[in-house]
């Protein structure tokens, strides 16, 4: 088995089903999915060289109305419900 190095200190899991239901709602113009908006923030990304990885996963089972479920893998006991249109910069500070 081979190994690949990654610089991730942790990962942020974003529910893809919630993101699809919200139909964007994040980013500067409010058209981006939450995962895409998070990847643009400094330190976040999807490549293995990012400090914090952002990955969209299938349904997490909560399915809130007009919001997206997010899990920080460093704190798996705290699931965040992020309402559509929330400030992504504040979310990145919280995920830090």
Describe the overall structure.
The protein is α/β, with parallel strands linked by helices and 96 residues long. The chain has three helices and five strands. It is globular. The chain starts with 9 loop residues before the first strand and ends with a helix. The model has no long low-confidence stretch (mean pLDDT 93).
What's the number of helices?
3
The number of distinct β-strands equals 5
Rg (C-alpha, Å) = 13 Å
Number of domains: 1
| Sequence stretches where pLDDT stays below 50 over 5 or more residues | none
* First-to-last CA distance: 32 Å
Major sheet: 5 strands, mixed
- The overall pLDDT average reads 93
Secondary structural class: alpha/beta
Q: Note the run of SSEs as H and E.
A: EHHEEEEH
Q: Can you give the helix content as a percent range?
A: 10-25%
Shape: globular
User: Per DSSP, what share of the residues sits in E-state strands of 2 or more residues?
Assistant: 25-35%
The largest sheet has its strands arranged as: 2-3-1-4-5
